[in-house]
């Protein structure tokens, strides 16, 4: 993304963040909004490094750019963002209807594809057309990301495949990791799209694979008992996803805590100066 305000580059988002709260309240006209330029700076949006390390990143990027170039002119980023939400709803409906017929999981998989199409293409089409709206785009995209993951996880929990409590455990981990990512975007100027070799696209493909296996194998009937609780094979898969998410959170937190502690060291306390 091109720098929108190159003459006012903020190299240390932490200092910018601290300076913001040291500004007297009467420094701004309360009838006006805080200047967008300052919002760009404090969010680190001018210089945010997009960290994308997933397995399919290279191939996915090429596909998305190609898709963006062939979209009709009337297709906008907002339309694609909301299409991603529609895909999440279709996915949840497919999961729920699987109680009636297991082959409704094809509808769930279709919803995941639609969700990927809208959620992944909305930012790409803006960059290809050079119509980026960094603040608005960041707000609308990631606000609705939370809505879509809630819809899909609840739908999965209401399906015959996953237990609701396990689906909600995965949801809690995803939301915690999302909050952590947004905090780091502000403080470090880094927007981490993936953790390790797996990202949203890989997880969508994993769920589609699980749906397909579930429809054409008898594995859904395999049950395990642990601590007087019954778990299916797919519950174990969801638990593995949850373990990955929480582990990524803890490992990244420990690493970033050390870095930020060095950047913002503890100050000595001198009670005689009080």
Report on the structure:
The protein is 64% helix and 5% strand. It has nine helices and four strands. It has two domains: 1-47, no CATH class; 50-262, Up-down Bundle (Four Helix Bundle (Hemerythrin (Met), subunit A)). With 274 residues, it is mostly helical. The protein is globular, with a radius of gyration of 22 Å. The longest helix is centred in the C-terminal third of the chain and has 31 residues, at 233-263. It has helices at residues 13-22, 36-43, 57-69, 77-97, 105-129, 134-157, 164-188, 200-216, 233-263; strands at 49-51, 190-192, 223-226, 229-232. It has a two-stranded parallel ribbon. Residues 1-32 have low confidence and may be disordered. Helix 6 (134-157) runs antiparallel to helix 7.
- The gross shape turns out to be globular
The percent range for helix content is 55-70%
Task: Tell me the name of the CATH homologous superfamily of the largest domain.
Answer: CDP-alcohol phosphotransferase transmembrane (TM) domain
How would you state the average pLDDT, rounded? 80
Strand content: 5-15%
- What number of structural domains do the residues give? 2
Question: What is the name of the CATH class of the largest domain?
Answer: Mainly Alpha
Structural class: mainly alpha
């Amino acid at each position: 993304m091109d720098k929108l305000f190159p003459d006012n580059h903020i190299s240390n988002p932490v200092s910018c963040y601290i300076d913001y709260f040291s500004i007297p309240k009467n420094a701004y006209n309360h009838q006006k909004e805080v200047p967008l330029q300052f919002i760009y700076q404090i969010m680190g949006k001018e210089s945010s490094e997009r960290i994308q390390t997933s397995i399919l990143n290279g191939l996915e990027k090429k596909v998305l750019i190609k898709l963006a170039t062939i979209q009709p002119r009337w297709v906008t980023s907002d339309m694609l963002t909301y299409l991603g939400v529609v895909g999440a709803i279709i996915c949840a409906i497919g999961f729920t209807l699987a109680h009636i017929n297991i082959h409704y999981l094809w509808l769930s998989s279709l919803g995941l594809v639609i969700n990927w199409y809208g959620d992944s293409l909305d930012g790409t089409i803006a960059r290809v057309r050079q119509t980026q709206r960094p603040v608005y785009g960041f707000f609308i995209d990631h606000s609705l990301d939370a809505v879509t993951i809630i819809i899909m996880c609840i739908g999965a929990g209401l399906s015959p495949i996953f237990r609701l409590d396990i689906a909600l455990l995965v949801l809690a981990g995803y939301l915690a990791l999302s909050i952590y990512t947004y905090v780091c975007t502000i403080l470090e100027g880094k927007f981490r799209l993936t953790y390790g070799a797996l990202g949203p696209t890989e997880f969508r493909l994993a769920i589609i694979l699980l749906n397909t296996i579930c429809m054409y194998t008898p594995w859904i009937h395999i049950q395990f008992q642990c601590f007087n609780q019954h778990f299916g094979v797919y519950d174990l898969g969801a638990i593995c996803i949850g373990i990955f998410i929480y582990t990524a959170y803890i490992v990244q937190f420990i690493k970033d805590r050390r870095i930020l502690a060095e950047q913002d060291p503890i100050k000595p306390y001198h009670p005689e100066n009080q």
